[in-house]
Protein 1
Amino acid sequence: MQQQDASQGLEGRKRLLLVDDQDNVRAFYKSYLEHHGYSVLVAANGREALELAMANSLQAAVLDCEMPEMSGHELARELRHIHPWVPIVMVSGRDDIPPDVLSSVDAFVSKRLGGQPLLAALRRVLGSSA
């Protein structure tokens, strides 16, 4: 049996945490990112995301900006306490994200642009080999 880095998922793929309250968005991004070689853990809200973050090592997180109970901004702050070195990409259907929210993450991508800009942002924050 081949040993793998604890921060990577199956077959050495980079492990991401994907958090979005919309089922269809989670399903789309999960499928798209897995197709491009990532191992994706999914959560529908901040509480689930924090549980996954505490139980798993991650190489990046993708957070929806607007979610019930805990916003993406609040979740980003909490994730920084658990995994301070893990890059965070925020996604939103809105483009008017307040500067203080944007300053809490490493990259921002509009959901309206599809999967390619998210993939490019992840490659940018993880390094070109991602």
Note: The two ends are 24 Å apart (CA to CA).
Protein 2
Amino acid sequence: MIEELIPLHRSAENLYLAIQSARESQPEDFWLIDCRDQAYVISRSSDLLLNDCKAAMEYAIAKRTEEQALYSFELAASANRMNSLIAIFLPLATLSSIFGMNLEHGFEHKYQPFGFIGVIICGLAFGLALKYLLLNRPVEVPKIDAFDAPILNRKPNPSEDR
């Protein structure tokens, strides 16, 4: 919509300027005064419409940006959960692959399920300990205040004015 409004707005402003120039060259023509006033109303209306469209577009962009930030945060939280699961089950898989379940240790016939259960318990305990030691940091949603943004609080540099 903005693409169609920009040429319309430009034409309305040029119409007003042209009629104003004609009015200045013919000061006694009252019909030009009416035309100039109508051209001003058209120019002002197109200006207001263009500004409203720009504001609506900027609002939509800001809303999408906020939604994107929320989705990004949810994705990071999901990745954190996945890392927690990996931290728990990686030691279990490592212990199972290193020692294997067919290791001859003498307990497989006398205490048949306890060797298997012991490896699982040790792997899970090691995985949980690893998770709590490495991944137990609270995740907070960052809140940004518009007045605390670094660009808004930046002091002007006099050398940038050149």
Note: Residues 85 and 131 are 8 Å apart (CA to CA).
